[in-house]
Design a protein that fits this description.
By secondary structure, the chain is α+β, with helices and mostly antiparallel strands. The protein has 2 domains: 2-52, Orthogonal Bundle (Arc Repressor Mutant, subunit A), CATH 1.10.10; 63-233, GAF domain (Beta-Lactamase, 2-Layer Sandwich). Helices cover 45% and strands 19% of the residues. It has helices at 2-7, 14-21, 25-37, 54-83, 124-131, 135-143, 157-170, 212-216, 219-233, and strands at 41-43, 50-52, 86-93, 96-103, 172-176, 183-191, 197-206. A 5-stranded antiparallel beta sheet has the order 4-3-7-6-5, with helices on both faces. A hairpin with a 6-residue loop joins β5 (172-176) and β6. The longest helix is centred in the N-terminal third of the chain and has 30 residues, at 54-83.
């Protein structure tokens, strides 16, 4: 029932929840009362409709990070072994992208993404984060000044918007020498069944080993890893959006 409430884009009624979850209305009412008692769902007193409660977020915050790392680790290790480049698992916290786990290259020269604070408009992870923002939030971001760090930094709002539209379509973002001349990156996003971002897979490389074109070519193994991670994170039997 929590899955069905969370899957909707708007609050749902008890009868809708019962129908979606395949239980009778009496059972649904009893279970909803229990979930509400533990603050796992919230009922709007005016409409009587339900949304996921803050108690679910509290539980998720306590357990989701270790579980995510555990499920993603085999995917990250295979991707790192295949490419022999630094590969990262990231999540968004507000507008900050945090590194949860990494697999390091055996090469003597590599880039440590965890030690670099990258503005959203000039990093591959930042771009794919922006590409999935609601339109109102994206418009607000594009109205703010964007600093130019290298000749490759995109600071024109129209140009960045056009690139973000391409990112949404292709499922990955590339940044090549846009924040620092010495490095480049490519990032994909793993989403839930409603298309909402769950986690990001990133490959970060020294720019001297790649051109923008050869970095972009890493999208094939990256997207394959993303599909694997999405299968591991999403509940079985429910198709991805």
């Amino acid at each position: 029932m929590l899955e069905e409430i969370a899957a909707g884009d708007s609050p749902v009624s008890a009868s809708e929840i019962a129908a979606r979850a395949g239980v009778n209305r009496g059972t649904a009412w009893r279970l909803l009362a229990t979930l509400e008692h533990f603050q796992l769902v919230e009922r709007d007193p005016a409409s009587g409709r339900y949304t996921v409660g803050w108690g679910a977020a509290r539980i998720a915050a306590a357990g989701s990070t270790p579980a995510l790392i555990r499920r993603a680790r085999p995917v990250l290790e295979r991707l790192g072994a295949e490419l022999d480049e630094n590969c990262y698992l990231q999540v968004a916290s507000g507008t900050t992208l945090l590194v949860l786990d990494e697999v390091r290259s055996k090469r003597p020269v590599k880039v440590e993404l965890a030690d670099i604070e990258v503005p959203l408009h000039c990093g591959s992870a930042g771009k794919i984060f922006l590409a999935h923002l609601p339109e109102e939030e994206l418009a607000e971001f594009l109205e703010s000044p964007m600093e130019r760090f290298t000749p490759g930094t995109i600071t024109d709002p129209a140009a960045l918007r056009a690139e973000l539209e391409a990112v949404r379509h292709q499922g990955y973002a590339v940044a090549y020498a846009e924040h620092l001349p010495e490095w480049g990156g490519i990032t994909s996003v793993t989403c839930d069944v409603q298309g909402r971002p769950l986690a990001y897979l990133n490959i970060t490389v020294p720019s001297y080993r790649y051109t923008r074109e050869t970095l972009t070519a890493l999208s094939q193994p990256l997207l394959a890893a993303t599909k694997d991670l999405e299968h591991r994170l999403n509940p079985p039997g429910r198709p991805s959006a």
